[in-house]
Design goal:
Chain lengths: ~180, ~425
């Protein structure tokens, strides 16, 4: 191997290493932005859009993303979003969301703490922790209801099995904002 | 000579004219004095009419001209009905009209709380918000519209004057804008009030529609229930009767923007002692979704509670059952009861059968300790008509005397600290 050839291979290796380093140092696609009506939020990049189905929520949601499968061993997470509710009151939206429990759709429902805070872009958001189902088959997560003086209101639901982490919840809920 | 006669005639004419003016003033003063013996609202009406004439219909003329002061409601006919006021307050309903004919319906409870409805035109059905429907608006007067299926709840009647005044200001503004002097009047009169947003909003909910994801089905075998199972088995458990939520009938959700509570009203169907029965279930929740109160109304023919005095008159009865939920433990118990794996059922053995609850049945023990039952029996009424009326009462959260229908008997069952030994007691003042 001549010196020129050896230097050529070395240069090629350096370029390849630099390319890989540059690719690795670029901002990782950890979250993808989703817009639903006037609502914007980020979701983990391993969440994929899904079609409506009983196991993934009713058909009135405007956007639905899922990771894993509901009946899978673990790792199930679903994000549901809509921004078309003609309401200005978070309490009214919570009442609507829990109503179908009377028909057995939220067995063993336990509502947790409620937190209110201002919503980026205006108005306020209400977060409500909830759990339903019976062990070992339970779903838990947080309901975010965003309201402002101008209708419509928006709902963002992040639910999953026991593997759902606080980081997963924060990625979605803390990024929620009004885009318009 | 002729000049002197004309001077005398002019003087006589001036005296007569002066006399007439003085007499006219005296008549006005006399009429004003007589007005003082009229009721306040009549005085305001006369003043309002005079003002409207003088200002060519363009003045705001101050007072609304409606008698909003008379809100008294006679005491309940008997103590048991007074107790029912805590669950479903009786109201006195008055329909008034503004100067331009807009009906204002004012329902006043004994507590002084007021609910106002504006206009009497038929309203569209409550919107199904979860389907993305929007709440339609309806004009109450030309140029002034409000959301449909909405009312104004005013605690202790506070804000009633302002609400009615704002409606009349709206009417007045429309009249001004139609007047030939609209430009002048609009420039001089800029302090009109706007109708405040309603505080009671009603919507429709399809209970069959699942919103949140379904819980994954179990793959492992379900362990058999035992007598020590902490949660109550669902479905008919004894022979007294059971009512089940009917998801095929749309439910109503009423949100109160003052108390920030939502009440869900659903239809029930089932049997009592083998007889068909219908009913209505009302669940009140706070903004966190916690249950605050359950109110149940059961309509059936024949005896409703054991020990209820038999009456010779045919007619159905309605049993109102109020269950307040106060502590976190009670909220969890009731929450588990209402949110089961199938449509919620109402156990009537303990609630209406007055059976002593089993020691290991926490829900039955709680219900029999907390429930207050009031049975109203009517004469010659179709049970379906009674059921319709009861459903309307639970949606509106108020009731009134049924004109033209005889209330035969009122029976009450008070809660006891242990849930045992409850008895049905007829209230003689309400027996007719």
């Amino acid at each position: 191997m001549t010196r020129t050839t050896r230097r050529g291979f070395l240069a090629l290796g350096l370029v390849s290493a630099a390319g890989l380093a540059l690719a690795g140092s670029a901002e990782p696609a950890l979250a993808a932005a989703v817009t639903v009506g006037g609502l914007q939020f980020d979701v983990p990049d391993d969440l994929r859009p899904a079609a409506a189905g009983a196991e993934l929520g009713g058909g009135t949601w405007q956007w639905r993303g899922v990771r894993g499968t509901p009946a899978g061993a673990a790792g199930f997470m679903v994000v549901l979003a809509r921004a078309d509710l003609d309401s200005t009151d978070g309490g009214e939206v919570v009442g609507l969301m829990l109503a179908d429990g009377l028909d057995g759709h939220l067995p063993g429902l336990v509502v947790g703490s409620r937190r209110s805070r201002s919503m980026p872009g205006g108005g306020e958001q209400l977060r409500l922790d909830l759990t339903y189902g019976s062990a070992p088959r339970t779903l838990r997560g947080t309901l975010l209801v965003a309201t402002r003086e101008d209708r419509p209101a928006a709902v963002l639901a992040v639910l999953g099995d026991d593997t759902l982490t606080a980081g997963d919840l924060a990625t979605v809920l803390d990024s929620a904002r009004w885009a318009s | 000579m002729a000049n002197r006669r004309r001077a005398v005639e002019r003087a006589t004419f001036r005296r007569k004219a002066t006399d007439r003016v003085v007499a006219g003033v005296l008549v006005l003063v006399g009429l004003s004095g007589l007005m003082s013996v009229l009721p306040g609202h009549s005085q305001r009406a006369v003043s309002y009419a005079g003002c409207r004439v003088v200002t060519l219909g363009l003045g705001t003329c101050g007072a609304p001209g409606l008698d909003l002061s008379d809100t008294s409601l006679a005491p309940a006919r008997c103590p048991t009905l007074a107790t029912l006021d805590a669950a479903l307050p009786e109201v006195r309903v008055r329909q008034l009209s503004t100067a331009r004919g807009l009906p204002v319906v004012i329902s006043t409870a004994r507590s002084g709380d007021v609910v106002v409805q504006l206009g009497d035109a038929p309203q569209p059905a409550p919107p199904t918000l979860l389907d993305g429907a929007t709440r339609p608006r309806r004009p109450i007067v030309p140029g002034v519209d409000v959301p449909a299926q909405a009312e104004w709840y005013l605690p202790r009647g506070q804000g009633l004057d302002e609400l009615v005044g704002a409606v009349q200001d709206g009417e007045h503004e429309v009249a001004q804008n139609r007047s030939a002097l609209a430009l002048l009047a609009g420039g001089l009169d800029r302090d009109e009030r706007t109708v405040p947003p309603p505080t009671l909003l009603t919507s429709t909910v399809d209970l069959r529609e699942q919103l949140l994801p379904q819980v994954p089905a179990r793959t492992d075998p379900v362990p058999p229930r035992t007598t020590t199972t902490p949660t109550r088995p669902r479905g008919p458990v004894r022979s007294g009767g059971v009512l089940t939520v009917r998801p095929d009938v749309p439910a109503r959700l009423v949100f109160n923007r003052v108390s920030r509570t939502s009440t869900l009203v659903a239809t029930l169907g089932g049997t009592i002692g083998g007889r068909p029965a219908t009913g209505t279930l009302r669940v009140e929740r706070d903004p966190s979704g916690n249950v605050l109160e359950v109110l149940l109304a059961v309509v059936t023919q024949g005896q409703v509670v054991p020990g209820e005095p038999r009456t010779s008159l045919p007619g159905p009865a309605v049993a109102y059952v109020r269950v307040p939920v106060r502590t976190p433990a009670e909220r969890e118990l009731v929450g588990t009861w209402l949110a089961g794996p199938s449509a919620a059922t109402v156990p009537l053995d303990e609630l209406l059968g007055l059976a002593t609850p089993s020691a290991d049945d926490q829900l039955a023990s709680f219900l029999s300790r907390a429930a207050t039952v009031t049975v109203l029996r009517y004469a010659f009424v179709d049970p379906a008509a009674l059921q319709d009326r009861v459903t309307t009462e639970l949606v509106e959260g108020r009731r009134q005397e049924w004109d033209g229908i005889r209330l035969v008997e009122v029976v009450g069952v008070a809660p006891t600290p242990t849930g045992a030994g409850r008895v049905a007691v007829s209230d003689p003042p309400c027996r007719t």
